[in-house]
Amino acid sequence: MRKELVLLFRGDFLNPIIEFCISNLGSGGYEALQVLEEDPNLDIVEYGCLDHCDLCAESLYALVNGEVVTGETPELLVKAIYQYIEENPMF
Fold first, then answer.
1. pLDDT at 10 (0 to 100)
2. Among 55, 81, 82, 90, which has the highest number of CB atoms less than 10 A from its own CB?
3. Distance CA 88, CA 30 (A)
4. Which residues contact 90 (CB under 8 A, 6 or more apart)?
5. Mean per-residue pLDDT for 83-87?
6. Does residue 63 sit in helix, strand or coil?
7. Could you tell me whether strands 17-21 and 43-47 are parallel, antiparallel, or unpaired per DSSP bridges?
8. What is the C-alpha separation between 63 and 68, in angstroms, rounded?
9. Backbone angles phi, psi at 34, to 5 degrees
10. Known InterPro entries for this protein (predicted)?
11. All residues at 6 or more sequence positions from 3 whose CB lies less than 8 Å from its CB, including other chains
12. What tens digit of pLDDT does each residue of 32-50 get?
């Protein structure tokens, strides 16, 4: 079961929250997670399950501020995540 989204604050601003499913990490998403963890402006959270099992079985994905973002490869997932953040500012 997915836990409630926890808002993580750094200073006076809210970082985008990127959530990963452990199962999807094992399917190739871990490479994307490693790249994103290098960015201090992102908060990365890993869960045992995000309740998107059909999506998890088909592609790489992450939740960005609660919205599903997908990519065919780890590189494309990272690109899609940054594009989503750029197109959907939090404030």
1. 45
2. 81
3. 24
4. 14, 16, 65
5. 96
6. strand
7. parallel
8. 5
9. -60, -40
10. DUF1450
11. 47
12. 999 999 999 999 999 999 9
Report the SS3 class of residue 39. Answer: coil
- Give which of 27, 76, 33, 73 is closest to 52, Cα–Cα: 27
Distance CA 66, CA 29 (A): 17
Average pLDDT over residues 61-84: 97
Give the residue carrying structure tokens 């953040």: 85
The overall average pLDDT reported for the chain is 87
> In sequence order, what DSSP letters do the residues of 1-36 get, joined into one string?
-PPPP---EETTEEPPEEEEEHHHIIIIIHHHHHHH
- Residue 21 and residue 9: Cα distance in Å, rounded? 22
